[in-house]
Each structure stands twice: as structure tokens, then as C-alpha cells.
Amino acid sequence: MLTDSLPENRQDIVFITVILLPLIILVGILIYLPAVDSLIVSFTNENLRIRRLPKFIWLENYSKLLENSEFWIVTARSLLVVALTLPLELLISLGLALLLTEVFPGRAMVRTLVLLPWMLPPIVNGFLWGWLLNGEYGALNGLLYQLGIIDEYVTWLRNPDTQVIWVAVVQTWTRFAFPTIILLAGLQSIPKDLIDAAKVDGASSWQSFKSIVLPLLMPSFAIALTIEFIAAFQIFDVIWTLTAGGSAGGAINPFTKTLMLYNYELVFRDLRIGLGAALSYLILFLSLGVAIVFVTRLYNQAVKS
Amino acid sequence: MPLYRNFNYIKRIWIYFFCAIALLWAIGPIYWIFVSSISTRMELYATPIKSWFPSEPTWDAYIRLFQGGGKYRGGDVSPTEGLMWTSLLNTLFVSIISAAFVTFLSTNAGYVFARMKFRGKGFFFFFLMLMMPLPLWVSIIALFFMISKAGLIDTLSGMIMLFIVFLLPLGIWLMSTFVREINPEIEEAATIDGCNRWQLMRWIVYPLSKSGMAAVFLVSFLTVWNNFLLPLIFTRSPDSQMLTVVLSLFVGQYEVAWEDMAAAAVVTMLPPFLIALFFQRFLIRGMTLGAVK
Amino acid sequence: MRSIINTLVSILILSLIPVTLHAEKITFLTPSWGIPPDKALLESFQKESGITVEIQSVQNKDLFSRTQIAAATGQSPADVIFLTQEAPSNLVAIDMMRSLNDLQAKDPLENDLTGQEFWNIKGEQFGVPVYAQLVMMDYNTDRLKKAGFNSPPSSWSELNRMAKKLKSSGIDKHPIAMKASDWSWYLMALSMGDPMFDNDLKPVFANKGSKSREAMRMLLEFFSEELISPEIVAGTVNQHSIFWSGTGTFHQGWQGSIRVGNNAEKSKQAPHVSYMVLPSVGNTWSFPAAIGIAKYSKNVEASWKFIRWYTGKANQKSIYKAFGLYPSRASVAAELNGEGLVDGYSQILAQSKKVDELPRQALWWGPFTAKVSEQILTAVQTGSDSDKTVDKIAAIWNELKSEYE
Predict the structure, then answer these.
(1) Quick one: which of C325, C327, C295 has its CA closest to C314?
(2) Which residues of chain B lie closer than 8 angstroms to C69, CB-CB?
(3) Which residue numbers in chain C have pLDDT < 70?
(4) Chain B closest-CA separation from residue C16 CA (Å)
(5) Higher pLDDT, A53 or B6
(6) Distance CA A83, CA A168 (A)
(7) What is the ipTM of this complex?
(8) For residue A106, what pLDDT is reported?
(9) Are C344 and C333 in contact (CB under 8 A)?
(10) Phi, then psi, of C53 in degrees rounded to 5
(11) Which residues pair with A44 in a beta bridge?
(12) Dihedral angle at the C-alpha atoms of C183, C189, C192, C194, nearest 10 degrees?
């Protein structure tokens, strides 16, 4: 069988090598080499402002980070953002993907329009929502006021708690197009005759959805879930432009500081690149850990079925 | 029969209803961007009644965007003069080429991982995927060093190469999933008919994974289009400028020239919109796999 | 398929061919307000000197990131770099700028160029001053008159009273437009007369009963009494956009802010905006800008020529006319005033006599001042005690100082 070809076939070995070798070399040089370099830096006390030779302090950076309560607070906050964003995002994108699989006139246009938020550059995003949400002359306030829902402008982002909620909303708005595309493509590859056969057998739409579509959609769903988890966990652009200020002073709003902002603070503002590199690796381990759990649980399960 | 027809009709209404909500959610803020781009600053400051379409719309912001030569405007000079066109073309070039390469390469690699067995397959897959969640800054200093030694700083091809490498893991992962869903019986039939691997790719895999490839192309294109850090660090001269960096120029010392940034944003959204519209036909149910029978 | 690949590859190869250069070329890295605004002037410079100037403009904080990454690998991002007041801590400290002492020996800077001392760090001159700006305050004279006050406040407690009257009489809901950040505190502390740091860089602001503590207390009170709009705390507006959108009577501005304030296209406060010399002792600090040469630049002579032209009379005049940035050359300032182009000249002059600089040359100033903003924002959000906040800030200063020294 074609799918069980063994490596002894010379033609196949050539095929595999021609395709994979360049990629492995590229990835090895451009991704792994720099990653190893910064791993080494993470074991030093390098600080660009202090002109001395960096010396090796090994795991001291890591312990300094883990002992500091700030790391844990920031991680908890990142997880909070994920908990708020992910369900919202995935529900919206799944619903949209299902909706847009239906055939109706104007479908192509609607599909494209719905992707527009993702085509907005991140820097514009933050300012846009800053203009929409502000309590002095914001458009959201104007809309609600004119609809009679509120009689006074609300400062939506005044409190740290509401700031995090809005961050989740804006992040969802920014990114929902991505999982929608993936799920759309995934839905396309589900053979229509399977669903039709089930309908003939008397299954309702909901049943056929549950037992046929959902399991077959799992691989794409798992990918979307993992990528969106990483995007939410490593959120930066939205918070930076919406609540962090990001002025030349470099002050970062401590109430919406998540892991990547903390990383930016260490690397670019404090220029403590040793410590910053260590934090980057901690972020990598955390992200990988969760990603691997998602992948092994959902993905492989789905592939098997 | 009449019941069936009613059901279809009701279903249509629901579909349009949900479409309307989806569009409101997605397009609402974008409409505001468009309105901002044709409003004057004072209109944007209006409170509490906001005008949903400016009473005196003006194309000034768009004209300023593409204008050459400094224009005195109450204390500011148009910061993007001469840069808008160049960066638009540069970004278009880099995005399309990167996305095309990534799609091509990851479909091939996706097929290898989906269909073929060989020693170390798991290892190589893991190798390619492992660093996906690595934040870009981790590598940026060393990457900068390598790229500058190779003389590729400030070149579009340097950017393309970097983007391809960073987009590959996701592309390969996606394509391996999509290729796996192709009915293996088709490939069997083809092999029996005497196809080798390359022919298999060309005649079976590519056509059948059109929607997957379209998804990967779109995702890659948009990721490059929106990326800020790579162009900021790896390009310098006005000739190789990319859109996202040009957009950041509207942030002045004291205020953001929002009307201008909004106009630039509208212009920035246009090419991806057209490309996505073009790719829609691939995201519809392709050659169904029932063709085996 | 193959033809497509061929085309792609050839396009790739074509883009690898470098653009040919002619004559001498220097690159100038600057934020958007440092771009020479008069194109004709720049053209004539390029023609006369045979030097091509390539302008690379980015947002200010991105300028730092780009330079810092280049510095980490021992390279220069450009030949000439625009230096803002954060530059000593962000660029000079990382050894990115070249000392201009040798160039100055051959071609000394005139005394006409004020503010050279700011850019002289440990005896080495790192920049030639381009413009000088003082942090100033302006206010809406008309609104103040409506509340019954005919002249600006002479002390901060008076300002406090005036603001409360403005609010209670309904004239202005949030009469003070200041940010929940470092600058607001520095402004109030310095103008109350506290030097904040002594010559040994010790944080005298932390002394018991210091004016800085009083300033912090009053600043936090401005927020808790909502004399400052809560939207500023939310961070979606800054003190300038909120003032120009109509909310606020007292505004923390800068030398040149009334030009925008009185511009009817950009500000609802027009035409009533006027500078006020800071109350009490009235000291302020300046945020100047300069232009310097990057350390690893290979075109030092050409860069120096460009710098001399850039800080020359003609360009400084055009910078003022385009951006409202006050020229560093005293002669140019006098000329512009003679032409009647400087609004509020007398107040600017009066304020310029009361300057008490902050130690921006300290290596750790960048991270310090950012942390000050964070502490103030935290205090505003959580209602912390002002004394504790000042103590925390002092602790941060001492910690950073010991780390860097």
C-alpha cells in the first residue's frame, strides 16, 4: 500500500530528502542557531547599559525570575486572558465557519468581509479601539448614548478589571478570522456524501453534526486551538497599543502586564538581555507544555478515529 | 413537500440574520475607521452626539498620504510622503512571494509527513514544530547578526527568507493535516496506473488539497502583511520600507494623527481584501472525494 | 509549474542586486519630527556638498529598539542619529554614539548653540543641540475668567482651589489635563522648588517633609477628586488630546503647545489658550534634542558636514515653522521673535529663566522614569498613600543606582 512505503525504496528516499532537507537546514540555521545563542545568553548577566563582559551565572536568572512574585502574577494574568479569549474566539469562529459553509448568494463576499479585522495592522488596532472606547469622545459611547442605552459617557477602560475584559474582546476581534479560515478549510474536506448518507438514515442535523462533522473536524480544530492559545498566551500588540501606553517613556501599565509585555520590559526597556532571554525560555516552556497537551490529546485522538 | 420548502426558507432567513450579526461585529469598527479617514479632527471630537457620516466629508487625508513634498498643516509635516506607494509595493511583493513559497514547500512536506513512513519521521516533524511558540525576540539579536554578516540586511530577499522560515512550521502542520484527509484510494489507483511520487503530487495531491493550500496561502500572506518587528529591525532605507513601519509614523510626538492613520489603514486593508476575495473559490467544496467511485 | 518557479527564482535573484550608489551617502535615523521639513533646502545641501542623505524615519521607541539590537551585535543602524532626551540613557549608555570631541577641535561649535552641556557626558560631546523645549503649562483664559479668576495661579494650592471652583460651578468637569505619569510629578515637584536630586545623584525628593512629597500628595488628590478625567487613567487619551477635545482648563504642555491649542482645526480650546509661568518657585525642566554620529559609522566627515548644516540657521528656522520646535540657536530664536512668529514669547522667556534639570545622563534614567510612571499609575488605581509611593520610588532609584554603579 502506498501509505506504508518503507525507506528502502531508493526513489522514495530521494523524494523525501529533496523535500525535507532544505527545510531542515533552513530551520536549523535560522531558528535553532539563534535560539541556542539566546539560551547561552540566558545563562549570563548581560546588560547592554553596563559595559562589562557578561559573566556566566547559570541558572541564577531563572531562579531570580521564579522567586519574584511578579512572574507568577504576570503568568496568572496571561492565563486569565487566555481563559477569557479562547472560548469566545473559538465559539465565534466555529459558528462562522459552519454558517459560511452553507450555500447562499453573496457567500463569497460575506466570507471575505468577515476576514477584514484580521487585515488591519496591529498598530492601527489599538488606536482604533482607543478611539472607540474612550470616555470623552468615543464612538461606542456615542452609539449607546444615541440609542438611549446610557445617559452619560462611560469610561470603559478605567478599571483594571474591565481593562482585561476589553483586551479579551479586542484580541478576539483581531484574531477570530484565523481559526475561521482553518475551520472552513477543514469543513471542506468532510465528504458531503457521509452527511447525506446519515440524513437518509434519519439522523437530525444536530446528530450528524455531533457524530460525523465534529470528530472529522478535530484535527483542524486542534490546530486552531493550539495556535490561538499561543496567540492569546503570548498576547502583545493589543495590550501594548490599547492599555499599556507605549510612549517613549516606556512605562507599562502594571495592571495589564502579561508575560510578553514583561519580556519586552526586560529586553528592550531595561536592556537586561540575560534576564530577558531566561524569561523567553520560561515562556517557551509554558507555551510548549500546554501546546503539547492539546496536540497529544485532541489531535492524535482525532487522527486515530 | 411544502413543509420542506418552508424549512429551506426559514433556514435562509436565519442564515441572513446571523450573517448580519457577524458583519456588524466584524465590520462595525472598520466602518468607523473609514468614517474617521474622511472626517475632520473637530468632528471626531464631537460629543455627545456623534455623526455617523461626517457632515463635511473630505478626501484630504488620502491626498496627504500619497503626496510628495512636505505640507505645512498646523504644525505637522506629512510623515509618510513618498513612502506610501513604495511600502505598498514592497509589502505586496514580500507577502505574495513568501506565501507562495510557504504554500508550495509545506504542501510537499505535508505530503511527506502525512503519507510516507521513514526512519526518524517523528523526530523530524518534532524538530520542525518545536520552536513554533518561541517568541521572536529571543532569536532577534543573533538573527540580526547572522543576517547582517550575510549582507542581507535591508534587502527584500532577506525578509522573504526570514518569513518563509518562520511560517513553515505552521504551514507544514496544516498541510499534513489536510493531505491526510485525502482519500488514500485515489492515490492507490494512480500508483497502480503507474504514477511516481512527483506525478502523484502534481496530478492528485495539489488539485485535491486546493482548499488547504488556499488556507495556508491566506494565513501566510496575512501574517507577513501584518508583521511589524521583522521589517522594523531588518529593513532601513526608504526603498525597502514595509507598510506596518510606515503606519507607525503617524504616531507623533504628542498625538496620533488618527485621520491620516485611518486613511492609511483603509489603503492597507485593500490588497489583502482583494486577494482573499480571489481565494474564496478555493475555500468551497472542492473535487469531492466521492470521485473514487 | 516549472515556468512559475523560474519566474519566482529570477525575481528573487533580481532583488538581491544592490541599488547602485553615487557620490557619498549617509543615512540619518530619526523620528518623524526630525525630518528636515524644507525639501528644497535639503536638495541644495546635497547638491553643494555632494553628499546624499538617506532619511530613515521610525517612531521614537522603535528607533531605540533598532539601535539597541544593532548595538548588541556591534553595528550602527545609521550614520547620523537624532537624539531625544531619553537618548543619553538609551543610546549613549549602550556605547552607540561617537564622541564628537575630535571633530569639534577642528570645527568648534559656536556659543550661539545653546544647550551643549546637556549632551556632554563625562567630558565627551555626543550631540549638537537641535532644539530646546521646556515643559510648560498652558490654560484656557476664557474659562478661568468665567469662574471669576483674572490671572493664572501663583501657587499650587491656589491652582487646586481654582480647579475645584471650576468643577463645582459646572464650567469644567475635569479642569486639569495632566497624565498619571512621571512628568506630572516632576512638574509639580520642581515647580514647588524641590531639586529632587542633588549633585551626587542622591534622591533628595525622599527627604522627610520634602516638597516632592507634597507634590505627590496633591497629584494623587487631583485624581481622587476627579479634577483629572478618569479617561486619562484609562490610557486611551493623553493629556493633550483630552485638552484639545475641549475638556480641561489647565494643561501640561510644552514650549510650543499653544500653537496647536489655538489652532481652530485641531483644538476646541482655540483661541483662548495662553502659557502660564509655573506656580510657586516655578522651576521646570527641559527636553532638548540633538543630533549625533553613530559609533561605527564609516562616513564621519560627511556626517559632520550634515550635522553642521542641520543645526544651521536656515534649517532651524524651517524646523520651527513646520513643527513649532524652538531652535537651539539664540540668534534664530531672536529672529523668529522679531518676525512675530513666536507665540507667547514673553512667557517662554520668563519660564526659561527657571530651569532645574533632571539627571537624564544617569545610565539607569530610562528604566527609572518608566517605573516612576508605573508607581504613580498604581497609586492612582489602588488609592495608595502618597508617602509610601515616594518611598517606593526612592527605593527603586537606589536599587538601580547600586546595580549600575
Answers:
(1) C327
(2) 140-141, 144, 233
(3) 1-23
(4) 6
(5) A53
(6) 9
(7) 0.86
(8) 84
(9) no
(10) -110, 120
(11) A56
(12) -130
pLDDT tens-place string over residues A273-286: 999 999 999 999 99
Among C84, C86, C94, the residue with its CB nearest the CB of A271 is C94
Q: Do A244 and C235 touch (CB under 8 A)?
A: yes
Annotate C328-374 with DSSP letters as a single string: SBHHHHHHHHHTT--TTHHHHHHHHTSB----TTSTTHHHHHHHHHH
The H or E element spanning position C136 is strand C135-140
Q: Which residue has the higher pLDDT, B1 or C184?
A: C184
**B3 pLDDT more than 90:** no
Superfamily of domain B83-292: MetI-like (1.10.3720.10)
A90-128 burial, b at 16+ Cβ within 10 Å, e below that, comes to: bebbbbbbbbbbeeeeebbebbbbbbbbbbbbbbbbbbb
Give the pLDDT of residue A188: 79
Residues C81, C257, A140, B33, Cα dihedral to 10°: -50
Tens digits of residue pLDDT in C215-241: 999 999 999 999 999 988 888 888 998
| B49/A145 touch (CB, cutoff 8 Å), yes or no | yes
Q: Which three cell numbers stand for residue B219?
A: 494565513
Q: Taking a C-beta distance cutoff of 8 angstroms, is the pair C76, C353 a contact?
A: no
Is residue B219 within 8 Å of residue B272, measured between CB atoms?
no
Rounded distance between C-alpha atoms, residue A185 and residue B181, angstroms: 11
**Lookup: cell for B29:** 469598527
Query: Grid coordinates 554614539 are at which residue?
Result: C97
pTM > 0.90: yes or no: no
Taking only Cα atoms into account, the Rg of chain A, rounded to an integer number of angstroms, comes to 24
Cβ neighbours for C117, distance < 8 A, ≥ 6 positions apart: none
**Distance in angstroms (rounded) separating the CA atoms of residues A220 and A186:** 6
Q: What is the dihedral of CA B129, B133, B136, B142, to 10 degrees?
A: -50
Distances (CA, A) of C49 to B77, B208, C43, C303, C368: 25, 63, 10, 11, 42
Reported as a single tens digit per residue, the pLDDT across B157-187 is 999 999 999 999 999 999 998 888 887 888 8
Asked if residue B45 lies in contact with residue A137, where contact means CB atoms within 8 angstroms, the answer is yes
Exposed/middle/buried for residue B23 (C-beta within 10 Å: 0-12, 13-18, 19+): middle
Residue that is written with C-alpha cell 509618510 in the block: B80
Residues from chain B that touch A92, judged by Cβ atoms under 8 A, are 25
Residues 165-224 of B with CB under 8 A from A: 165-166, 168-170, 172-174, 177-178, 180-184, 187-188, 191, 196-198, 211-212, 214-215, 218-219, 222
Measured CA angle at C318 (ends C314, C320), to 5 deg: 120
C38: closest CA of chain B, how far (Å) = 7
Q: Domains of chain B: which residue ranges? A: 2-58, 83-292
Name chain C contacts of A126, Cβ cutoff 8 Å.
none
Q: Which residues of C touch A51 (CB under 8 A)?
A: 95
d(CA B222, CA B220): 5
Q: Cβ of A136 and C247 within 8 Å? A: yes
The span from the CA of C239 to the CA of B254, in Å, is 9
Cβ contact, residue pair B233, C69, below 8 Å: yes
Chain B closest-CA separation from residue A69 CA (Å): 22
Q: Domain map of chain A by residue range? A: 1-41, 59-304
Asked if the Cβ–Cβ distance from C56 to B236 is below 8 Å, we say yes
- pLDDT at residue C13, as a whole number: 62
CA distance C300 to A73: 48
A59-304 CATH: 1.10.3720.10
Q: Which of A112-121, A203-212, C253-262 has the lowest mean pLDDT?
A: A203-212
Is any Cβ of chain B less than 8 angstroms from the Cβ of A181?
yes
CA dist C185 and C379 (Å) reads: 12
- Asked if A251 and C377 come within 8 Å (Cβ–Cβ), the reply is yes
